[in-house]
Amino acid sequence: MGDFDTFAALLDYPVYVVTAPGPPPAGCLVGFAGQCSIDPVRFVVWISKANHTHGAALAAAALGVHLLPYGHGLAALFGGRSGDDTDKFAGVEWYHGPFGVPVLAQAPAWFVGRVLDCADWGDHTGLLLAPVAVEAPPAGAAAVLSYRDVDDLEAGHPA
What we know:
The chain is mostly beta strands. It has three helices and nine strands, in the order H-E-E-E-E-H-E-H-E-E-E-E.
């Protein structure tokens, strides 16, 4: 689908780390996500079925969605390593947020959302979230990592 690939190459949007409570806690880098309703506020994240975090996300009552600081540290850990063979939370500061969801201390902004629904959409599952707790600085106060900033990362799970 060459024409769509050309279109998609022009896009640049934030990337996120989505976390799920365990045991053990799970998390992955997500490039497909966005607000999908204003009133009521709703956000959807799409998680690859090949990803280790997929099963944990489907079993969770709530998920954490984190914007990332500029730089490859968290993105490389959560996107370039697989939870199949790596404890991604061992080397980062985090704490239990609402519903026991892991919250990454380095994230400049995050929210925890209650999982309302999920849908099978191709090679990803979409999870509809209703935010229940939010931590964010004023608009424009934090630089966040975008898709183009991480397009050189190799995925930590099989394609």
